[in-house]
Automatic annotation (TrEMBL):
Organism phylogeny: Bacteria, Pseudomonadati, Pseudomonadota, Betaproteobacteria, Burkholderiales
Source taxon at top rank: Bacteria
Membrane-spanning segments: none
A Pfam family annotated for this UniProt entry: ADH_N
Enzyme class: oxidoreductase
Designated name of the protein: NADP-dependent oxidoreductase
Residue ranges occupied by any Enoyl reductase (ER) domain in the UniProt entry: 13-330
Signal peptide interval: none
SUPFAM superfamilies per record: GroES-like, NAD(P)-binding Rossmann-fold domains
Length: 333
């Protein structure tokens, strides 16, 4: 099969197009013929070596986390899906590899593709959809009539999270450029802060939840827009001790993780705010819940550009530039 392979860590290093054997299946996996693959900032961060401590990949490795495609084979203990099923998933850490013609996926991470989406649309959903779901539903327990501030509303996670929050009945604020204000409003944003001309800290007050995805300076400001009892969920760090335990990191790594977030956790406690870090985990069951919302029309995919499989490196560079409105997808088949 054809695949795009990371041979060595390095910033902006191109992936190499190679012919590889079709991956071998484990008993609890199915083999998916890849029709489309989503591209994420996580892919470029892994390529750059930013996750070497917590995700120790053995190089060379095929990159890619999001997949939509068709089941072509099932392992001996995989019985939930049959050959010919149209499926989608965020594949498991340490079993990534969707920038390829075939990828093995653990069946518990897999879900049937929403019937009203194309393969390209479906491939845009898993990572950002599960991130938004696990942040707003799983960690924040966002409720009707609460106020949530979702940063970077025109990005991949932002475009999904705004729609999910509105479905849950929340009032939604977000940041976006003036050029993207109409887009985020069409998705359900009630308050749009133009980050180029406004400071969100001067506009927003007494919010219940912040979904943080930016830098450390923005994190500090986010603490100040939350009310006492509010919840700050960060998907960009710093990681908290619970994350270190969840990934069963070595003791030294857990100590480093605890140290990295000590300051923000202390300042959050002083304000009566809960701080937690989210590193999204695959879940076929949650994806099935997301499928129901998509099929009901509550959430729609937002795709900026679709690239040909041969242009995988160009797609990765486009995402890394940080200007995509919604998601970027590679059409493989």
């Amino acid at each position: 099969m054809k695949a795009f392979v990371l041979e060595r860590y390095g910033k902006k290093r191109d992936l190499r197009s190679m012919a590889l054997p079709t991956p071998e299946l484990r008993d609890d996996e199915v083999l998916v013929e890849v029709h489309a693959a989503g591209v994420n900032q996580l892919d470029s961060k892994i390529r750059d070596g930013e996750f070497k401590l917590i995700l120790p990949y053995r190089l060379p490795v095929v990159l890619g986390h999001d997949v939509a495609g068709v089941v072509v084979k099932a392992g001996s203990r995989a019985r939930r899906f049959k050959v010919g099923d149209e499926v989608y998933a965020r594949v498991d850490d340490l079993r990534i590899g969707t920038f390829a013609e075939f990828v093995p996926v653990r069946e518990t991470s897999l879900a049937l593709k929403p019937s009203n989406l194309s393969m390209e649309q479906a491939a845009s959903i898993p990572l950002v959809g599960l991130t938004a779901w696990q942040a707003l539903v799983g960690k924040a327990h966002l409720k009707k009539d609460e106020k949530v501030f979702i940063q970077a509303g025109s990005g991949g996670v932002g475009t999904f999270a705004i729609q999910l929050a509105k479905h849950l009945g929340a009032t939604v604020a977000t940041t976006a450029s003036a050029a993207n204000a109409a887009l985020v409003k069409s998705l359900g944003a009630d308050v749009v802060v133009d980050y180029k001309s406004q400071d969100f800290e001067e506009v927003l007050r007494d919010y219940d939840v912040v979904l943080h995805s930016q830098d450390g300076k923005t994190l500090e400001k986010s603490l100040r827009v939350l009310k006492r009892g509010g919840r700050l969920i960060s998907i960009s760090g710093p990681p908290d001790p619970e994350f270190g335990k969840a990934i069963e990191a070595p003791r030294f790594v857990q100590w480093v993780v605890r140290l990295l977030s000590a300051g923000v956790r202390r300042r959050a406690r002083a304000r009566g705010i809960g701080y937690s870090f989210l590193f999204m985990s695959p879940s076929g069951a949650q994806l099935q819940e997301i499928s129901r919302l998509i099929e009901a029309g509550a959430i729609r995919p937002v795709i900026d550009r679709t690239f040909a499989f041969e242009s995988t490196n160009e797609a990765l560079a486009y995402v890394e530039a940080g200007r995509a409105k919604g998601k970027v997808v590679i059409k493989v088949k």
